[in-house]
Design brief:
The protein is mainly alpha-helical and 72 residues long. Helices cover 83% and strands 0% of the residues. It contains 2 helices and no strands. The protein is elongated. The two termini are 22 Å apart.
Length: 72
Amino acid sequence: MFFRKKRKVRRKGDERLLEEIDGLKESLDQQKAMLAHSSDYQDHLLYKSKLTEAKYLFLLKEIRHRRTSKIR
């Protein structure tokens, strides 16, 4: 009985992690496109993009560590 609850909690955490990484990937792509198309180079956009990329890579590492995938 205890193990069922543990799997359910892990599955919810995995789903939340996958949703979060999808959102970060979309945000990162938008920020990179904005940087590529902007003629006026702004430092805060670059820093924000690097921060988003760091978060994305951290979550990607966490997904690999937890052996999570979208296909089950």
